[in-house]
Amino acid sequence: MIYGYIFEDSYVDLDKDAEREHPSPFSCSHLLQFKIFTADAAVREELAEAWYRASVFWSTDPWNMASSLYQIGWSAGLKPADSLRNGLWPFHEIRNVVVTIPVQFGSDVAKETLVLGKLHCLSLLKKSTTFWFILEGPGNFACLEKDHSDAENYAKSIWYLSSEVRRLRRDGFKVFVTPDWSRTVLFGMEETTVEELTEKVQQAIEESSTY
Predict the structure, then answer these.
(1) Total-model pTM
(2) Can you tell me the distance from the alpha carbon of 44 to that of 76, in angstroms, rounded to the nearest whole number?
(3) What is the DSSP string of 43-108?
(4) pLDDT, tens digit, for every residue of 163-188?
(5) Which of residues 94, 124, 154 is at a domain's end?
(6) Structural domain range at position 115
(7) Fewest CB within a 10 Å sphere: which of 120, 152, 178, 189?
(8) Do residue 184 and residue 134 come from a single domain?
(9) Mean pLDDT, to the nearest integer, of 121-129?
(10) Mean pLDDT of 193-206
(11) Cβ-contact 149, 202 below 8 angstroms
């Protein structure tokens, strides 16, 4: 992938960017005259493949990722999906995915089932894909004086994700889980009980409060 280094800082929000044209697929666009550079079909193929594999794609809804990846356009009237070699599917070419997952205190089986269903489709990606699950919320959780009960409520609210995280890892994917209130914290989600996860959350809260 000779052009991979070009896209090391490329981030694409699939929820916001799918229907608008990207001014350039390059993080260092000043190094290249895009229209001239992409006139060669072979170069376009290499660029498209490198862009999908090196960029980080953000989404709140993995179900819609495949269609969003087809809609994304570059400048010069090009679409990376149209530039891929025959037989390559954009959804299979991405390697770095960030999914934001809302966290709400209290059990809501319907919402949890919906989230798990959306995450399950990530299994269609290549096993070399890395996932970051960003736990968003609840509300002003980052501003609260968090005690053990807060840690317990938080742990109970994310516990349902454990089985899916473990399944993805068993299938060969790299999965990282981190809360939005502290990106220095990683939850392994390997705990076997809610009580064990509560202790990990409590420890994370105490560590994050020292920064």
Answers:
(1) 0.82
(2) 12
(3) HHHHHHHHHHHHSEEEES-GGGHHHHHHH-B-STT--HHHHSPTT--HHHH--EEEEEEE--SS--
(4) 999 999 999 999 999 998 887 888 98
(5) 94
(6) 95-211
(7) 120
(8) yes
(9) 90
(10) 88
(11) no
Other C-beta atoms lying within 10 Å of the C-beta of residue 201: 26
Helix (H) / strand (E) containing 176: strand 174-179
Six-digit token pair at 129? 């894909």
pLDDT at residue 108 tops 70: yes
Task: Provide the pLDDT for residue 115.
Answer: 93
What pLDDT band is residue 34 in, cutting at 50, 70 and 90?
low
Strands 56-59, 174-179: pairing is unpaired
Whether the upstream peptide bond of residue 80 has omega within 30° of 0, thus cis, is no
Structure tokens at 41: 């079909």
**Could you give the number of structural domains in the chain?**
2
Binned at pLDDT 50, 70 and 90, residue 17 comes out as: low
Are residues 77 and 110 both part of a single domain? no
Q: Please give the single-letter amino acid code of residue 166.
A: R
